[in-house]
Amino acid sequence: MLDQVVVSESEDAQRRQAFPAGAAVTLDDLEQAGREHVIDELREREPVTWLPALGGWLITAREPARQILLPKSGATVEAEQNMLRASLGRMMLTVDGEEHERCRQPFEVPFRAREAERLFAESIRVYARELISRIDGPSELTESFAAPFAVGVAAQVIGLPLDDIRRIDGFYSAFAAAMEYTGDPEPLRRAEEARAELTALLLEGLGRSKVVEASDLSPEEVAAQLRVVMFGAIETIQASVLTTLMLLLQHPESMAQVRADRSLLAGAVDESIRWMPPVAFMERWTREPVTLAGVEIGAREFVGVSVIAANRDPSVFADPLRFDIHRANSRHGLSFSSGEHHCLGVHLARMQTVIALEEMLDAWPSIDLVSVTPPSGFAFRRPADMVVSF
Question: Over 70: is that where the pLDDT of 213 sits?
Fold first, then answer.
């Protein structure tokens, strides 16, 4: 396990002088809604920069971000300081190479595009329809739809009866809150408690899960992989559903187009995920020195990727701040990562979000956005609440 190098005060001072734009960026700039312009400006000035607020490097341009995520970069996730490991434990996203393959392989088949469609599409549609039918009048969609939809589908996918939606959603809120660089030990303590409770639930139900039949992992290892599979199925699905609907409601012409032609919904989802990615930040550590965009980074250093900034790189995405459901290359964003750690459930996530929106549009011929808290968050980004009427 790699241990991140400690940069001396003199070296830090030299880097601050060499990268003044990065030195001025705060953690609030990476977390709060409405501050995205700060990292957009940083990308134009210092696409790879030293960020004292993180104690490491930050990449905001798409190409060097993609490079660091690929195995050939030599970067690793196997570091003592990995916040994802601290929050969710050791599993497929915190190991590399053969161990990563061993952890991931048993879960890959059900998440392939055709298999996901065959196995889950109809049950997802039925469940979405059922949840929407319970909503009568103005509603806060996180609680009435997004959270139960995400948790309920996650239960279907892994074959476990996870009935306590509020409790399960609370676990993942605790996990997400712990993935920040504030230095406060309390969020990590709450995440450890949540992890222990969730693991107990998973181990209790593993005998009913088909995942175990296709795996040579131990029950504890299966539970560890399911924790992160569920994270993708819960936290990020809530984000993609809420953010896509928010953007469509804020762009009436786009909403009119998808109402007239539902085939445009897939593009709307891809563009929403590019424009405001549910996973806003990714972390790696260098095993050996590496040069990115002309910047030399030493061994055992922390390198963060701002997915928001990379997804708005104008060298890849024309007029990147514009929400364009017809954008041909929306999928070129890094919202689902790249390389060996790319998102296991990418096909399911897209399908699930499209189905949710299709059912909403069918059930509600007219939808009005009453209020929304703009998407925020450091590692994971979504509206905290969203009220609609119909």
Answer: no
State how beta strands 368-372 and 75-76 pair: unpaired
The arithmetic mean of pLDDT across residues 313-333, rounded, is: 97
Indicate whether 123 belongs to any domain.
Answer: yes
- Upper half-sphere CA count for residue 119 (Cβ side, 13 Å): 17
Residue 258 CA, distance from chain mean position:
25
The H-or-E segment that residue 117 falls in is helix 113-133
Long-range contacts of 104-108 (CB under 8 A, 24+ apart): 104/225, 104/344, 106/211, 106/214, 106/215, 106/216, 106/217, 106/222, 106/225, 107/211, 107/215, 107/225, 107/229, 107/344, 108/344
What residue ranges in the chain does DSSP mark as E strands? 48-51, 56-59, 75-76, 139-140, 281-286, 290-292, 295-297, 302-306, 368-372, 386-389
Query: Mean pLDDT in the chain?
Result: 91
Residues 6+ apart with CB under 8 A from 379: 83, 176, 179, 180, 279, 280, 281
Domain that holds residue 125: 9-389
Cβ 282 vs Cβ 304: under 8 Å: yes
Total of domains in the chain: 1
* Largest interatomic CA distance in the chain: 62
pTM of the model: 0.91
Domain presence at residue 2:
no
Cβ neighbours around 265 below 10 Å, total = 23
Please tell me the least confidently modeled range out of 35-44, 164-173, 212-221, 281-290.
Answer: 212-221
The DSSP secondary-structure symbol of 8 reads: P
Specify the pLDDT at position 363. 97
Q: Residues 64-111: pLDDT tens digits?
A: 999 999 999 999 999 998 888 878 888 898 999 999 999 888 888 778
Token output for 87 = 């929050």
Which CATH number is 298's domain given?
1.10.630.10
Gyration radius of the chain's alpha carbons: 21
What burial class does residue 81 get, using C-beta atoms within 10 Å of its C-beta: 0-12 exposed, 13-18 middle, 19+ buried? middle
Q: Rounded distance, CA 126 to CA 272, Å?
A: 24
What six digits make up the tokens of 371?
Answer: 């209020």
